[in-house]
Write a structure and sequence with these properties.
single chain; about 110 residues; HIT family, subunit A; five-stranded antiparallel sheet
């Protein structure tokens, strides 16, 4: 996997995605290789490597991100009765671009 799949593939348009919700600064889409029956990814449209690298100047973007995460989680809960919202940090973070997962169900078998 590339260092930043979301900038290199998704935001560049090289990899087409099934969009769930979009604002000027945030994109939510169905994961291209889902780990759960419902697996939606929410990303900022600018490169931010991690939650830990956010600066105070990016607080408005963080608020917008969480607004989209809330909208997407609300959709998932209304359709399935539950959802989980998570992000990965450090060695757990495969793509070095801030992203959140909104999921439902048990992990799919590999």
């Amino acid at each position: 996997m590339s260092e930043d799949f979301y900038c290199d593939e998704v935001l560049s348009g090289k990899t087409l995605v099934n969009k769930v919700f979009e604002t000027e600064n945030v994109l939510a889409f169905h994961h291209t290789r889902p780990f759960y029956p419902v697996h939606i990814v929410v990303i900022p449209k600018i490169h931010i490597s991690s939650l830990l690298s956010l600066t105070e100047d990016e607080d408005p973007l963080l608020v917008e991100l969480f607004s989209v995460i809330k909208k997407v989680a609300t959709i998932v809960v209304s359709e399935h009765g539950a959802s989980r919202v998570m992000t990965n940090l450090g060695k757990y973070q495969d793509s070095k671009h801030l992203h959140w997962h909104v999921v439902f169900g048990h992990p799919l078998s590999e």
